[in-house]
Design a protein that fits this description.
Elements lengths: L11 H10 L17 H9 L12 E3 L2 E2 L7 E7 L5 E11 L2 H4 L13 E6 L9 E2 L5 E2 L1 E3 L8 H9 L9 H7 L1 H46 L8 H15 L3 H9 L4 H7 L8 H23 L2 H13 L10 H7 L7 H14 L25
Parallel strand pairs: 4-5, 5-8
Antiparallel strand pairs: 1-3, 2-3, 3-4, 6-7
Helix pairs in contact: 2-4, 6-7, 6-10, 6-13, 9-10, 10-11
Length: 378
Amino acid sequence: MNAPPVMAPARPRERRLRESAAPSYGVRARGAAAPPLQEHELVALWLLGRTPSETLPWPLLRPGRAGRGPGPDVREAAFLSPEGVVRSGPVEVHLKASDFVRHGHDRDPAYGSLVLHLVWIDDRAEPGGPQPLPGGGFAPTSAVAPALGGDPARLRKLLRLGPRGTEPCAAPAAQRGAEATTALLRAEGRRRMAELVWRADALAAGQGWHGAWVRLLLRALESSAGRRHETPHARLELAAAIGRALGGDPLRRLAELAAAGRPGPLIEALRGSGLIGRGRAAELGWNAALPLLAAQAAAFGDLALARRSAALIEAWPAPRPYGRTLALRRLLGPPARGAGALHAQGLLHLQDLWCRRGGCGVCPLSAEGADGEVVRAH
């Protein structure tokens, strides 16, 4: 058998040609020890507010928050459009623009509402154009490498600077203190519960009280499933088990459990004879049982039931922190003792009404600092 031919060492020019042909994501080498750019570094650049402004299609109002789980890398970024309207939505980050299609995002509805595709280099056949989205929309593509000379070292230098300013709700929360901030959030939680009560009443008007209970219970089971692989049929079986545990008249039984004046008995009854945990049962109570009880009390003028429902709402235990409010929760600091579910629901209410719509600097959390001055977004 002939021995394989021995390759002669590459001459300097040949070595340079080989290296230039290798994929580099537009990275300009700065020494053999320099690690290649990673996508998470580009995400960090964005979240820290350090993306060069000249690369963006509009002025940035808020970078948003990191995405959790499947879907875009960044949620709730906000820009100011030329018309003076806030454009808010998710941002997807890639090292190469072609990764959007290579990763299958062009067929995933979760990416249909992007407001920006942020990349290190735009390697498409026609760079600079918008990124087609599933559903027929488009998102502008912003390439960062040209503004930084294609040098990852310059990007990492920006990362070491840390955040560009702070969110406008952070300083007022620190000045206000935990007790006052918690009270403000609990008030927002009551507003969110009022919306749930209104929806429960509207549902009962169309489907009757029992029909409304079944519909609310199924919705709550679906929203509380989290990452469980739970089929609609499995949720129907859980709803039936909870119904059996409550007896022949579930609405009457819910009202009787509310009379205990404590969340515990009602939460335990909603576990369906132990088929679900206390945390999920508490979610069912908040999103299905309590709104329906409060709606019934208002519809029938039942003052006693209204007081019991209100007392339960005030005392309902806090859930585990919701992923989409973690960033806001960190900005505001730890809640005061006894914050409960109202605090968590207040975070959700503000997140939905203000954070995701570009309302930084004008929301109830940041509108007034300790000195009474209005705090505006950076």
